[in-house]
Design brief:
flat, 6-stranded antiparallel β-sheet, 3 domains, Immunoglobulin-like, alpha+beta, single chain
């Protein structure tokens, strides 16, 4: 019903515009639906004031129509739910917990949500059961999928349908089922700093989560080598890392790493002509569900 009302509104404006143009006593009327609306005619039977009024009215109607067409784009945007796919968790050899979130209900009273998944990214044939979420409920939702193949890559996305049957799709994400062997810890490599100046440098590194997920990736750096080296022993999450002025600082570069990635981060306001130490680290939950931090080797550079 909401979508029909919008189309009726657009249609009425188009009709009014057509009637005004066709009913104007002119020798000719020329209309352009680009950035401007131009009416060129000779109003033989209208005063100058009436002609100006008519032109303003036509222009306002056209601008309103253009605004509606742009805003709705022939879709009921304000009644379509907005869906996000979140990373899978609690992954085992043959099952996993898929997660999603309703970002916005807009004018929809509820959202029917589910997940689509399979081993082929372009053909997500399998589907979970549907769950209805009201606009006053918790926006997060999840479903456990079972009967998966071990040591296999799966793709999935969250799907939502509003109260008018319009759907929105979250991004397609990937997870790997376990292979019944011991979990492999993340591979972390600190790479040399580049673009070094008197007060800044680009820190670099790579992280491969291997059998683990939801990694928080960050750099630690500072003028005290021992504090940089002790981060993975002294702290268990990025938030817990306690900065200590110029001796130890931190900067986060990824909040939710599930596979592997490379990073380069510009750090500024460094002391000049000074040796600085740094390492790339990742915080995650280990096989015992304990928070841990692992870091790559500690490297150094000297500001100019």
């Amino acid at each position: 019903m909401k979508k029909i009302k919008k189309y009726v509104q657009i249609g009425l404006l188009m009709l009014m515009l057509a009637v005004l143009i066709s009913g104007t006593p002119t020798h000719f009327v020329e209309a352009s639906f680009g950035n401007q609306f131009i009416v060129q005619n000779q109003f033989q039977y209208m005063s100058q004031e009436n002609r100006q009024q008519m032109f303003r009215l036509l222009t306002q109607l056209h601008e309103r129509l253009q605004r509606l067409l742009w805003l709705y784009n022939f879709r009921s945007l304000d009644s379509e739910v907005q869906i996000a796919t979140r990373s899978a968790t609690d992954i085992d050899t043959d099952d996993a917990l898929l997660r999603g979130e309703v970002l916005d209900f807009n004018n929809s009273d509820y959202a029917d949500v589910w997940f689509e998944y399979d081993t082929d990214r372009s053909d997500l044939d399998r589907k979970t059961s549907t769950q209805r979420i009201d606009d006053n409920d918790d926006e997060d939702f999840q479903r456990r999928v079972t009967g998966l193949k071990k040591d296999t890559s799966y793709y999935f996305r969250a799907v939502g349908e509003d109260d008018e049957g319009e759907r929105d799709y979250g991004a397609i994400l990937r997870f790997y089922t376990d292979d019944s062997t011991a979990d492999e810890d993340p591979d972390i490599v600190t790479r040399s700093a580049v673009n070094i100046t008197d007060d800044s440098a680009d820190l670099r590194g790579t992280v491969d989560m291997n059998d683990f997920r939801n990694g928080e990736v960050f750099f630690v750096y500072g003028e005290d080598k021992s504090q940089v080296e002790d981060v993975e022993d002294d702290f268990d999450t990025y938030r817990a890392v306690d900065e200590d002025g110029e001796d130890l600082q931190k900067v986060q570069v990824d909040r939710d790493l599930d596979s592997s990635d490379s990073y380069q981060e510009d750090v500024i306001s460094l002391d000049d002509n000074t040796k600085h130490y740094f390492s790339i680290c990742v915080g995650y939950e280990d096989e015992d569900s304990d928070d841990v931090i692992e870091c790559g080797s500690v490297r150094s550079f000297v500001t100019d």
